[in-house]
Design brief:
By secondary structure, the chain is α/β, with parallel strands linked by helices. The protein is built from twelve helices and seven strands. The strands form two sheets. It has a five-stranded mixed beta sheet with strand order 4-3-6-5-7. Strands 1-2 form a two-stranded parallel ribbon. The longest helix is centred in the middle third of the chain and has 20 residues. The radius of gyration is 18 Å and the shape is globular. The structure holds 7,8-dihydrobiopterin and fe (iii) ion. 7,8-dihydrobiopterin binds next to helix 4, strand 2 and helix 7.
């Protein structure tokens, strides 16, 4: 992201744009409704309680692409977070600055009907359906702010790649252990029809108990289902580990440790599922 330096002409210096909700067509609202119906049905019994509660208290089942103003009013009353519109990916420092101030930057465009299952840039369905429900949870809301603050600090250490792995394996692709078994909360999983089955049911990926250092050493793939999912004991535990860790000495330690492949297993790992890696076999890893 370092190659993008200035916002497009229509955006403010912080890269925000008006959501311009009136511009969504009936067809675009229908794409939201289709994606919403498909995912909310699939996530019953699979998503974390906090995620499902977020969908409910934020009234996300209301038909059509949500209006950020209205959504921010509800979310703000719960945890003080707001949703602001951005044109797409924004530079790391801009992204962290928003999170540190409890603003979630959400893409304002929606995928086209021929891209229901996969797209590279975060659209309004990934960002709002995937990310915003968890921001209604007070503990997770604090974690996201702490992540933004840590992100801003990490830029000074040249340690962004390590910290980005923490985001990837928690916010985007995290699992949590609840009564009744493993549950999904990562936005990349819950917003994906295929991965919201794969991450929980498929024998291929490893599932390992979350460990901060282990996660920050582990490379990830951006082009396909994950080969490893990390499982939290609780969101409180994640917040505590993040807030109590002094990241400066941790980055120094990480520099001396080799990075790990996504399918690596270590003797110290608390393995929940030892995956077959069948799904990834023969595929070229892009990370
Ligand atoms: N921009 N819109 C948007 N959404 C993101 O998730 C995002 C970003 N810019 C940078 C970024 N993420 C990374 O810094 C994090 O994944 C660590
Ligand atoms: Fe995301």
């Amino acid at each position: 992201m370092a190659d993008i330096v200035s916002p497009p002409p229509e955006a403010a210096p912080d890269w925000t744009v008006p959501q311009d909700w009136a511009r969504y067509t009936a067809h675009e609202h229908a794409i939201w409704d289709l994606l919403f119906a498909r995912q909310s049905a699939q996530l019953e019994g699979r998503a974390a309680k906090a995620f499902l509660r977020g969908l409910d208290v934020l009234h996300l089942s209301k038909p059509g692409v949500p209006e950020f103003r209205e959504l921010s009013d509800r979310l703000g009353a719960l945890t003080g977070w707001q949703v602001v519109a951005v044109p797409g990916l924004v530079p790391d420092a801009v992204f962290f600055e928003h999170l540190a101030n409890r603003r979630f930057p959400a893409g304002n465009f929606i995928r086209s009907a021929d891209q229901l299952d996969y797209l590279q840039e975060p659209d309004v369905f990934h960002d709002v359906f995937g990310h915003v429900p968890m921001l209604a949870d007070p503990v997770f809301a604090d974690y996201m702010q702490a992540y933004g603050e840590g992100g801003l600090r990490s830029l000074g250490f040249g340690a962004l790649d390590k910290l980005a792995r923490l985001y990837w394996y928690t916010v985007e692709f995290g699992l949590v252990r609840e009564q009744g078994g493993l549950r999904l909360f990562g936005s990349g999983i819950v917003s994906s029809h295929g991965e919201s089955r794969f991450a929980l049911d498929d024998p291929s990926p490893n599932r390992i108990r979350f460990d901060l250092v282990r996660v920050m050493r582990t490379r990830y793939r951006i082009d396909d289902y994950q080969q490893v999912y990390f499982v939290l004991d609780s969101f409180e535990d994640l917040l505590r580990q993040t807030v109590e860790t002094d990241f400066a000495p941790l980055y120094a330690r990480l520099e001396a440790l080799p990075d790990l492949a996504p399918d690596a297993l270590l003797p110290d790992d608390a393995i929940i599922t030892h995956g077959t890696q069948e799904y990834a076999r023969g595929k070229v890893l892009i990370d």
